[in-house]
Design a protein that fits this description.
The chain is α+β, with helices and mostly antiparallel strands. Helices cover about 45% and strands about 35% of the residues. A 3-stranded antiparallel beta sheet has the order 1-2-3, with helices on one face. A hairpin with a 5-residue loop joins strand 2 and strand 3. The model has no long low-confidence stretch (mean pLDDT about 90).
């Protein structure tokens, strides 16, 4: 699970959370371990990589083309019925 939190300095930080529940022999919860890792830099790098690969606005034409191909394939399936 990921949450965006606001730090004391006002910056926004992306935190990836992991929770682990420890049970005793009877199945009762005895501990909950929560770990948060700041993944803000990783998210920034991922965004820059997407922009480098696809360029600004370059993804939409690909999505439009794919959408048209799906519509065509769907029409062919309907005609087979």
């Amino acid at each position: 699970m990921m949450k965006v939190l606001v730090a004391k300095d006002g910056s926004r930080r992306a935190i990836a959370w992991s929770n682990t529940v420890l049970l005793n022999n009877y199945g009762a919860v005895i501990h909950v371990i929560a770990t948060g890792v700041d993944v803000t830099k990783r998210k920034e790098v991922e965004q820059k990589l997407k922009e480098a690969v696809f360029g600004p606005g370059a993804l939409q034409p690909r999505l439009d083309k794919f959408s048209q191909e799906l519509k065509g394939a769907n029409q062919q399936l309907l005609e087979l019925e």
